[in-house]
Design goal:
Blueprint: E1 7-10, E2 15-19, H1 30-36, E3 41-45, H2 61-74, E4 81-85, H3 87-98, E5 105-109, H4 120-128, H5 137-147, H6 154-158, E6 161-164, E7 167-170, H7 174-179, H8 181-185, E8 200-205, H9 216-222, E9 227-231, H10 238-241, H11 243-258
Parallel strand pairs: 2-3, 2-4, 4-5, 5-8, 8-9
Antiparallel strand pairs: 1-3, 6-7
Helix pairs in contact: 2-3
Protein name: Pimeloyl-ACP methyl ester carboxylesterase
Keywords: Hydrolase
Domain AB hydrolase-1: 14-242
């Protein structure tokens, strides 16, 4: 059964849903959403086990796509455009491939429909091992940084730390995330023969290795109309590294995809 996701909204116009990545929350995309809200009704949901959304023991891409589909149906959105980053990008792809009639177009940021190996499990372990309730934010950040590699996104991980009354806690189901990490790093094999014929854009951070030109044949097999764009001087967190360049790319694609007058 799908979960009822927490979400925030901005603007008015054609509907647009932005799906955040692993360890994130919808609010990480607030600046992008507020910029797009000049022309669109933007929805920022928190994924299951993230932010203010309900927790669950499992979090497969099929389940997360159904969560988003339930939001679309509950809000009576007519074929919204769906933008997803990283884990959210895989969720967006899963939704488009499994329920193509529900989606007007899909934009995927710095991820491909393939399997990855990475250090995410070490992030979960480090966060679970911290007694954040008894520590201050500065102490938590220092200890977390000491337990991870020098290139770990410590400041990004710290954004999930929230004060609840007189204690801190992670707004993230770390146990479920850790147990589901293999599925989160993979892509559903059941969708390998599926196709989404609608508008599709794949945006890569030029300094990231998550979305490479070698991924394009696999992308086009699933998304025949896919266009690939690279944003210079951006890593995996494109929206934080180059927000203006990302917005330019998204606005151009959205205008073409839904035939909005750019003026």
């Amino acid at each position: 059964m799908p979960l009822e996701l927490a979400f925030e909204t901005w603007g008015s116009g054609p509907p647009l849903v932005i799906l955040h990545g692993l360890f994130g929350a919808g609010r990480n995309w607030t600046n992008v959403a507020q910029s797009l809200a000049a022309n669109y009704r933007v929805y920022l949901p928190d994924a299951r086990n993230h932010g203010a959304s309900p927790w669950a023991e499992s979090m497969s891409y099929a389940e997360m796509a159904h969560d988003v589909l339930a939001l679309i149906e509950r809000e009576r959105l007519q074929q919204p455009f769906v933008i997803g980053h990283s884990m959210g990008g895989k969720t967006a792809m899963t939704l488009a491939l499994s329920h193509p009639q529900a989606v007007g177009g899909v934009a995927v940021i710095d991820i491909a429909p393939e399997s990855y190996t990475g250090q995410f499990s070490s992030y979960v372990s480090a966060m679970r091992n911290l007694d954040v309730g008894a520590a201050g934010r500065r102490e938590v950040r220092r200890t977390l940084a000491e337990s991870l590699r020098a290139d770990a996104p410590v400041d990004f991980l710290m954004q999930t730390l929230r004060r609840e009354r007189d204690r801190f806690d992670w707004r993230l189901n770390l146990l479920a995330t850790g147990l589901c990490m293999r599925d989160l790093c993979d892509f559903p094999a059941s969708l390998r023969e599926a196709r989404y014929e609608g508008p599709a854009l794949f945006i890569a951070g030029a300094e990231s290795d998550y979305l490479q030109p070698a991924s394009l044949p696999g992308i086009r097999a699933l998304f025949p109309s896919a266009a690939l764009e690279r944003i210079e001087d951006a890593g995996h967190w494109v929206h934080a590294d180059q927000p203006e360049a990302l917005l330019r790319g998204l606005n151009e694609w959205l205008r073409d995809a839904c035939a909005l007058d750019p003026n």
